[in-house]
Fold each of these.
Amino acid sequence: MERSILVSACLLGLNTRYDGSTKADRRVLDYLRQHNLTPIPVCPEQLGGLPTPRQRSWFVNGDGSTVLDGNGEITNADISMNLAFIRGAQEVLKIARLTDCRRAILKQRSPSCGVGEIYRQNLVVSGDGVTTTLLKRQQIEVISEDDLDF
């Protein structure tokens, strides 16, 4: 039986990262094949209206949960990026609902997709990205490429 799963587009080899590059991960591709999963590629930052390439963004304070609750902040050094990141998370949630995805593999440490770890300033800290938080709040299981077990 074939099943769909949301996957960060950069992990699949698409050039969607902030610098226009990819983070293609052979472990992700092997996992999908081994478990007969059909990936639904998503890039919350692009879906939120941001161009590729774009300036790198990070949390100034808080994490995905505090941004969604109106208390955290993501910046790209020039301006607050909260609205674009929230809009992108909402679009990914729409895609999950349209495709009946109940699971996701998202890029670790990203301000959108981080699962358990994010960048705050230049430090790696505990927390989830905005999209990860929104998906988890809707009972969608989210793991990172580092969490894959075969």
Note: Strands lie at 3-8, 37-42, 58-61, 73-75, 103-106, 117-120, 123-126, 141-144.
Amino acid sequence: MARRAVALLSGGLDSTLAVKLILDQGIEVHALNFTSAFCTCDSGGKHKKGEQGGCRSEARRVAEAFGIPIKVLLKGLDYIDIVRNPRHGYGKGINPCVDCRIYMFKRAKEYMEEIGAEFAITGEVLGQRPMSQRRDTFRIIERESGLEGRILRPLCAKHLEPTIPERTGMVDRERLLSMLGRTRRPQMELAEDLNIGDYPCPSGGCLLTDKIFSKKVRDLLDHKESVTMKDLQALKLGRHFRYHGTKLIVSRNESENVRLRNLIQEGDTVLEPEGFPGPVALVCGGATNGTVEMAARLILRYSSRNTEKRGMVLVTRGGKTTSLEVANPPDDGTIEEIRVC
């Protein structure tokens, strides 16, 4: 029976190198890629016409290049409970890094059992990230995911205790590496030696570590108990405000105008300028206490070509559209009072 492992493959440089090192030892690798609403990875590289960038497509590209199967899993609404109440706390933003790794390895363990894999591999490097890539957190992650001794980190393995696949001879420890710390140079040099090029997103990232974006997430979780995937997608769009307890989102460009219209949910109100160029605004439920009027005024505020700062705004709610005359965009003081981010 073939020796088999499951690899957490982001499509970034570290996980790509980890997979390559294990493949070179004749082990059958099955890739597992996680996506979420909080991924910052945007490759910016060259893609075929119609192909999107980002971690998912890069992971697929790496899997295809290596000839290995890949399964993509969404960190969905169950993951939001972890973001809301992480057992092991947050990093510099609202990032539950340790709990996130436990979550992913628990799902990796399920996949291992499904396909008969004997261990998991990851591109983590000891000391590279301050919260989740330390000896103590490695031990916590392994214990709480149920994978003690079965998570192999090929890039830094020689700084760690031998894992079960190393102790049993399934993996040759001498062919593993001893990378350490935050520098990326050893990975880049190894990629050159292994003839691995075109590796976008070398270190990956998570929007939950961004202090500004974290304000949007915290505001959402503080004001809404049952979060939807559209709520999460909207976090990446526009300017966010909170007025009398209701979320208002105002787009920043034409692309966001289109995307924001696609995120309307039951009970929402969408506003758009009539007869003048400007942003689209979304009132996320609760169209009372002047929220619609404030959203319309915000459209005037961020319409750079409406010099009169007055006009008509189309208001659509529940399939019914009406016109609203609006003037007097909010001043700087009001903007600062209601701005989330």
Note: The radius of gyration is 24 Å.
